[in-house]
Amino acid sequence: MIMKTFRIIVVTLVMLAGAVSCQNKLPKADIIITNAKIWTGNEARPWAKAMALNGETILAVHNLEKVMKHKSSRSTIIDMKGNLVVPGFIDAHVHLYQGGANLTSVQLRDARTPEEFIGRIAEYASTLKPGEWILGGDWDGKEWGRLPEKEWIDSVTPDNPVFTVRLDGHMGLANSLALKLAGVDRSVKDIAGGTIERDDAGNPTGIFKENAMDLIFNAIPEPTPEQVDKVLEVAMDYLASNGVTSVHGVDAADYADALDRLRKSGKLITRIYAMTPVSKWESMKNQIEEEGVGDNWIKFGGVKGFLDGSLGSHTAAFFEPYDDKPGDAGFYVNSEEDLYRWISEADKAGLQVVIHSIGDRANNFMLNLYEKVAMENGPRDRRFRIEHAQHLTPSDIPRFAELGVIASMQPYHAIDDGRWAEDLIGAERIKTTYAFKSLMDAGAVVAFGSDWFVAPPTPLEGIYGAVTRRTLDGENPEGWVPEEKITVEQALVAYTRNAAYAAFDEDVKGTLEPGKLADFVVLSEDITAIDPVMIWDVKVLQTFVGGKKVFQREK
Q1: Which stretches of 179-297 are assigned E, i.e. beta strand?
Q2: What predicted TM-score, i.e. pTM, was given to this entire model?
């Protein structure tokens, strides 16, 4: 009996020693997050209270007792004071350089009258040297009753060429000096996929739509490398202040050299999925063959194109004409033949195809084309994307899931366009406009973004928009097309897990799990528990990228 008892004691001591040894062998944390309410985005374990980080990655996400097993003398403990922690927001659609450039230019988005529009341009012009261009602006103009003309601003910008772009990015206003520098007069003809607005005498009014905008863009001097780097730094700081840790840069391949410079200098704080125009798919293919797809900071693989324009510019392609412009149903900015050729070849090369489609006819065409290309090129994990997918026929909604096409959508647009969309397309067609819930109910993957510079890269405002659908003018307190409201958790998934999936990144980001990147955001309120109407006022307190704090809100 004594020997038996002795053996039990020995075995127990050995087991305890082994347990202590195993615990000592656990990887130790650089940082331990405590006293937090963590929404992980992981369906198997959606909530946690603590998190351990080692370098750029997550070691553990669990309760405090289990996470503290990773503590060592070098671990930094951060008390989150009960605040909500969520995965870093991934903005699935941004024009990064243009967004940053517009932050430093004249601000016209909320100019309510032509006089205010003119006055802001005049004030900004007074700060510039002669010859410096005035760009960006993001004007709206829906309340003006007419499109602006060059005569509005010529007298206040005699020495500075101007090309201010409407907030949707699909038309812009040039002054007379810009027209002169671009060599555009009444003799210049319209070009395919674009429109030059003209007066009764045939003279350009200064408004250029879609592809015609290139006539002015081509006259704008290229910025210096130093200017590009500074603009991108401004853009990334702004993204971090809004909790955005990764973006899908739909034009980022154009300034990949600048991104690489920033990374080498340690100034890159936003992860970038860099895309190039679908018409230049071969350049992306060649780059990947020579240099690979990149890493967790800058990644390549997407090619982005346009099929139609925008609703506000009456250039989105519909089956039926606009209600306010009979006979006008919008148009395609690229030919069907070109798109088929580019998309088919890009898909054969293993690239991800991402196409802008707004109107119901454009979305229907893209679904048909994607289905055709997939059948011709054979099965693979291709993850075709439709950017915006704003206006859909009811029969096309289930096809997104059936075809595996990702709907990359922007909820802020819904509460913006909802102020006036019915005037353009009528009460019936708006029923399937920004159909977040219908798409999700049908099983489609919906990824959220902003389309910055077109809309602000503010995921909290996007979540507010998706959940409440209250338009910016306050005229729809119960929600615009309220049947398409979704839950806060669904919106969070679209900004995190689904957005990661939309770039083949679900194994490294989008949820807070061991082994994934330590990209996360601390919010001032628990948006899953408060009245959704209050989400608009919630603040980002801190933003971490790779375990490093890149934003701290001042008290």
Answers
A1: 194-198, 204-210, 244-249, 271-277
A2: 0.87
